[in-house]
Amino acid sequence: MSKGKPMHGMTKARGCSHVRLGNFCKLFPKLPTWAKDCGIKHQCEAEEIAEVLGGPGGIMHDAESSSPDGTLPAAYTFFSQFIDHDITLDVRSNLHGDELPTADITHLPNLRSASLDLDCVYGLGPEAMPFLYDQSQPGRMLVGNDVNENDLPRNSDGRALIGDPRNDENIFVAQLQLLFLRFHNRRIVGRTFEEAQEDVRYHYQWLVLNDFLKRVCDPTIFSYVQGEIASGNYPKCSLLDDCHRICMPVEFSVAAYRFGHTLVRSVYPANGEYPVIDLFDERFGTEGFSAVPPRLTVDWRYLLDVEECHPYVKSKAMDHLLADELIRMPDPIVGRFASENDRSLAFRNLLRGYVLGLPSGHRVAHAIKDKGYPVDPDADLCFHDIPGWPCLDKKLREKLEHHTPLFFYLMREAGVLGGGQRLGPVASAILLEVFGNMLLNCDSFLKKDGWKPDKCLGGEDFTLARLVRYVNDA
Ligand code: HEM
Q: Does the pLDDT at position 186 exceed 60?
């Protein structure tokens, strides 16, 4: 798209343009990588460590479902996944490749716009992607299909017609996508498409900052950032490239924001009739990128505090453990010929961290402290208390305790310093830095003086539960 001439239905550039894609980058490009600190010379050495920590039966595998429940309602797990699919997508880096130099990472394209613009819902707008829109009612999003009106629109192969295919990766994130499509369709009444899109985006951005991030981040770091924003000292790191696009730091996309993986449970309620289904359930053919059968239409009251006194499930605790369903991901997600290790999301996260040259947790903690955040970079993460840790080879243990892979460090930080209920200070700082960049540099409600959510949605008390109630009341 040319710089100064937005198409109809697309947001005009203000600072950064919503629709312009950028590249990946590093928050702290000068730090040595974890592999360098560990003296790793070859990819297979990194792979061995990723297997010990993240492979099936490894330190991060919650094989016995011993990780407790957190306090976060389970629906936020899929909201966090939905947010991810709005801001970051790497399809280029090679999971089994060598470590990439920083210069190559800055050329790696991010196939989502790094701004909270809901490109996963709107795509590139009604003119560029008409197949996402209801042609019989201009400006409305397409919803439902012949088999289930409470599902996403799908083509004859069953593939969802949506802005980001990953929002069909499990039935819960697919139903959340449907919720946002319906939210738009309700908000467009009496508005033009552009007005409705802005209104939906602002409400969504409010939810991300004042509902979701407030719940998952360390409260001291959250208040610190609020103060810094008020005094104009935020963000601390500039993520704008020469073309005024926001680059997506790999410390966020490959480590800190993958914290959502630890929230995932192996089983969920879909509704009152089906109170226990596997995340990927063979019985219903819902093993990823599959239509939602009418009987599994999700009743959010079972995953969120939508209705007073209605019981709902919580997310798994935030810690270093990943549920069995994510350690043995099914064919539709990883492909038929994937190895046992490649089926494990913990293994993939760690190996991807090596390939994309992440620094160690300790290095990042010190760099965050140097930026002024109130964190203790030498906090004791009690590695010896981790089940299975004392059985690791002594040399490997020492190496990992001094140079901890960033993803493992941040998840352990959540388990120990966040008590499993929220992220620790370092991960919170990374999240707020990146979301702060997106909200303060792109078109957002923060730049619209006095903007507040609609009173019908609870005004300043707007939450995900209020959104569900509002859409369901329609
Ligand atoms: C619900 C089950 C989920 C599954 C099956 C899943 C699966 C995956 C897979 C297969 C990848 C690519 C891994 C790689 O090869 O590097 C990935 C990436 C990622 N996931 Fe998840 N995920 C889930 C939930 C979440 C949640 C809840 C979050 C939210 C915080 C999240 C955040 C991310 C991020 C940030 C990436 C990197 C995206 C990119 O830059 O390409 N995921 N996920």
A: yes
pLDDT band, residue 19 (cuts 50/70/90): low
Question: Is 201 a pocket residue for ligand 1 (Cβ < 6 Å)?
Answer: no
Q: Is 77 in the pocket of ligand 1 (CB under 6 A)?
A: yes
* Rg of the Cα atoms in the chain: 21
How far, in Å, from the CA of 190 to the mean position of ligand 1? 37
Answer for the pair 360, 34: CB distance below 8 angstroms, yes or no. yes
The mean pLDDT value for 68-95 works out to: 97
Straight-line distance from the first to the last Cα atom of the chain, in angstroms, rounded to the nearest whole number: 36
Q: Tell me how far apart the alpha carbons of residues 254 and 117 are, in angstroms, rounded to a whole number.
A: 21
Best probe residue, ligand 1, of 173, 258, 339 (max atoms within 8 Å of C-beta): 258
Task: Give me the architecture of the 24-473 domain, per CATH.
Answer: Orthogonal Bundle (1.10)
Listed in sequence order, the residues at least 6 apart from 352 whose beta carbon sits closer than 8 Å to its beta carbon are 93, 95, 254
Its pTM stands at 0.95
Domain ranges of the chain: 24-473
Does the C-beta of 403 come closer than 6 Å to ligand 1?
Answer: no
Whether the Cβ atoms of residue 31 and residue 119 lie closer than 8 Å to each other: no
pLDDT at 244 (0 to 100): 84
**Beta carbon of 348 within 6 Å of any ligand 1 atom:** yes
Choice from 84, 164, 215 to test ligand 1 binding pocket (greatest atom count within 8 A of CB): 84
